[in-house]
Amino acid sequence: MKALLRIFILLLLSCLFLQCKSANTLEREILSPDTFHTRSIDNKCAMYIDRNFEISIQEAREGFLDDFFNSTVFRNVNIKYDTANHKELLLILLISNTGRHPFEISNIYINYANITLETLNAEQLSKNRQSFNDALFGYYSIKTKDMCLKDTGFSEKITAFDGKSIKPGDKVIRLIAFNRIPAQFRNFKINVKVKSDIIQKIVDFKFIRFEYRHSGHHFVKPKNNND
What is the pLDDT of residues 73-99, one digit of tens each? Predict the structure, then answer.
């Protein structure tokens, strides 16, 4: 009888622990509002358009990462990464050269509260806990009319990209990674520097981050994002 009682108590405690863990699960969300020079698609994809190029940035969510890593261009790349529980801020960058001149992306960085964050490379990410390869953060060609991608269904459209310069008619995709911004800072900008003999431009994309739990006293999930 005592043995059964002990088992019952252990099961009860386990259930309570799992409920607490679930209730305190941390959720993150990044929204992209419309600005004077960028437009937002479904509040999750920021897009810039002019006569020379189109650029979009969106968060790389779990389903997106799974599809991206399953692309044939990574068939011989050893990828060990927990796409559901990653700590870094992972974003997807799409660039389409709609003009008449080639250009390069010379820099990508985050600005928040007068602080600048540079992109992380494979070596920096591997030091955290998981195996990365520089190939994951290169530029790849993508055959799609869309500038904002769904979470799945695009892996077969990604092929190798030859060269650093983005030529007229090229459309490329790149995964970019940053350290996460501290929870007390909600607003940040991602700056993309476009450079060529003719083009010298920095495009900034505004994002608002939300980080909350389902219960507790701090960072509790609001009923809506205006709370």
Answer: 888 777 666 655 667 888 999 999 999
Query: Which tens digit of pLDDT belongs to each residue from 168-225?
Result: 999 999 999 999 888 889 999 999 999 998 889 999 999 998 766 555 444 444 455 5
Domain spans, the chain: 36-207
Over residues 38-60, the mean pLDDT reads 93
Mean pLDDT of the chain: 80
In Å, how far are 52, 87, 90, 188, 189 from 30, measured between CA atoms?
28, 14, 11, 10, 12
Q: Return the CATH fold of 36-207.
A: Immunoglobulin-like (2.60.40)
d(CA 196, CA 103): 5
User: What is the pLDDT, as a whole number, of residue 22?
Assistant: 44
Give which of 171, 174, 164, 106 is closest to 134, Cα–Cα.
174
Q: What is the pTM for the complete model shown? A: 0.78
Give me the residue label for tokens 């006569």.
51
**126: its two tokens:** 């591997």
Q: Distance between the two ends of the chain, CA-based, in angstroms?
A: 52
pLDDT for res 189: 96
Q: How far apart are CA 78 and CA 112, in angstroms?
A: 34
The number of beta carbons lying within 10 Å of the beta carbon of residue 58 is 24
SS3 (DSSP) at 206: strand
